[in-house]
Amino acid sequence: MPKRPTPPIVTAMCILLYLGGGLTVFYSLAGSRVHGGPLANALPLFGQTLYGVFILVLAFCLQRAHRWAWWSVLVANILSLMLGALSVGLGGLDNVGSAVIPVIYLILLTRPAVRGWFFEPRPSPPLPETL
After folding, report:
1. Sign of CA dihedral 53, 56, 62, 66
2. Fewer CB atoms near the end CB (10 Å): N or C, the chain?
3. Gap between the Cα atoms of 4 and 109, Å rounded
4. Which residues contact 46 (CB under 8 A, 6 or more apart)?
5. How far apart are alpha carbons 11 and 118 in whole angstroms?
6. Lowest-pLDDT range, 32-36, 49-53, 112-116?
């Protein structure tokens, strides 16, 4: 079975996720808080480390067209958008950046080429021959 080429949008999203997850792990292990958005900022340092590892795993699985990874990134960005909107509402327009990044991810995730790549029918594996 030939490997399907990864759409450039998915590659760009994975690079951003690898960078974000790697930086979150690095900063949390160094004992410093990183501005990882409202979802990561709500966690203690060890939680941020786990969150960063989760983001790295998501990037890896998203790059390999796992549907659950697409859904996980979608749900995480919807939650992040809601928390970002809450922080804009409570903290003013200084926090608007925390609501913009999830919108960008949601736009990229729902592009027709990306959705088609994740949800196109996949051939079933051949059945073993019996005697």
Report:
1. negative
2. C
3. 18
4. 28
5. 13
6. 32-36
